[in-house]
Amino acid sequence: MIGRLRGTLAEKHPPQLLLDVQGVGYEIEAPMSTFYQLPGLGEVVTLYTQLVVREDAHLLFGFATLSERTMFRSLMKVNGVGAKLALTILSGISANDFARCVQEGDTAALQRLPGVGKKTAERLVVEMRDRLDDWQPVPVLPTAQPVPVAPSGSQALRDAISALVALGYKPQEASRLVNGLDEDLSSEDLIRAALKRAVKV
After folding, report:
1. Is residue 149 scored above 90 in pLDDT?
2. In this structure, are residues 33 and 22 in contact, taking their beta carbons and an 8 Å threshold?
3. What is the pLDDT of residue 151?
4. Angle at which helices 187-200 and 171-178 pack, to 10 degrees?
5. Of 41, 135, 143, 171, which has the highest C-beta tally within 10 A?
6. Kind and range of the H or E element at 20?
7. How far apart are alpha carbons 181 and 157 in whole angstroms?
8. Beta strands per DSSP E along 54-174
9. What's this model's pTM, rounded to 2 decimal places?
């Protein structure tokens, strides 16, 4: 089991990144909450990881904090929730807010996340409530300062739409969520703003 990796951040294409660990490039998928905390390319970063083995692939997921990874592991134990949906959930809502929704039985908020319908939201509340009884809110660390991005505004918009589609949003919905946002923002900031819009809808 690969539990943690420390290496140089070589590529960032939300929700995927490439981590160079002593010459070996690890392709890792990460929730947007982790992307917001990543340093610039070429910087050293440490990620807690979870290896998911499927018949057709071995997928590596990375997290900035142990609490995120713990939540990811708990989500995957819920009937009907796989690794991709767990990643989408953690990208659309913080672990603290998710825990609050479960503890308060707020299925309406959960249904605003892509891929989470009424039945899945109810199942999340029922199956996760006991597991989150002792959940302690994790202090939110200040995110890294935005790193200047080379792509033009339109390229950043395309990257943001592509990332939202990879997270489970339909292309039309992804376009709607970024419509009207400041094109001078980085793709990560565009995604953050779009996800906030989605949860508030």
Report:
1. no
2. no
3. 42
4. 100
5. 135
6. strand 16-21
7. 9
8. 58-63
9. 0.72
